[in-house]
């Protein structure tokens, strides 16, 4: 909350300086902030204010700000930078960031910027890969160790070719054909005898990822193994690049955001205060789907209109039956979707997951059903009403467990994202079945 207050205060101060036409002071003030805070302030200014301020920011500072922005914010900012200057700015950022920025431009514009970049040879190969793949996330590798080097030679090699300690998370070893054959930790290198060879101390079992692997798979590997870096290779194990943990942090956030949005049936690019027409278009489709499923639930209720008319008290408890089932189903589906995303649950484990969730649903259904049944008897003085509510609650909690497991598994089997609107389909199942159980039992036992 402190960071948000700092940014809000900073944004207000920059706007005040710009209103006084003191752009130089506004630019100087940004320099006093952390690059992440300054990037947020710049991103939240309107187009005119951004344009004025960017003219007063030096290229190196602007490069720092771009590295702290997401892709949408970068796209807004680079609109105000001419091609020649953008080339100088991108020379100061990491190659993978430069590739992401160039990916926001048209091919013609990107070509013009690349033609003016000193680091074009490092950046251009990264543009061959989609931005949401390992190849799109990686940075080109620097000089690598060889097996025949001694430890003493390796130290001299590192002093010659490396200046940034962040580049030395792991030391990868290549053969003369550029194939990845091992990895050496700094700890092993420091503790080794100076006359030992790298081939003697390296670990030949290197975990790698292919360049075409989805970014979610890459994020899972970092999470599972706690890596600081991960090598990217082609089909023949030639080293293509390195992904660092800093590169993957935004991916983890983006993937989590995507799952949350899709659970609600929303486009992952949706933003607060995005254009009304665009926001309406992205949300309307799933709202219409939800409307159709709501009519299905209403159709089930309409089958029992005469029962509700004769036992009006049933209407009082219908939201409880449907609501508890929906909540239980969302709990189950959330756990299943997250387990699938992290690779902790495979498709062939569906029956194991079903047994577990059905057992849990039955226990929860009995406990909640008893509570609601007791309340119904004490409130309405009708023991049979309590039986109807209790049994219906158990039945709907079982449906919630089944739907919470099967809907994500089915979407995964069909090759779709299991988070894709699972909530809409799940609440439809619990509403329809919950109303059918409750009103059907009411018809049998209360009339």
From TrEMBL:
Listed CDD domains: CBS_pair_Mg_transporter
Keyword field contains Acetylation: no
Keyword entries, A-Z: CBS domain, Cell membrane, Magnesium, Membrane, Metal-binding, Transmembrane, Transmembrane helix, Transport
Pfam families per record: CBS, MgtE, MgtE_N
Assigned GO CC terms: plasma membrane
Domain of life: Bacteria
Annotated coiled-coil segments of the chain: none
UniProt xrefs under InterPro entries: CBS_dom, CBS_dom_sf, Mg_transptr_MgtE_intracell_dom, MgtE_N_sf, MgtE_transporter, SLC41_membr_dom, SLC41_membr_dom_sf
Compartments in which it is found: Cell membrane; Membrane
Description of how the protein assembles with itself and partners: Homodimer.
Job description of the protein: Acts as a magnesium transporter.
Name by which UniProt lists this protein: Magnesium transporter MgtE
Gene this protein is translated from: mgtE
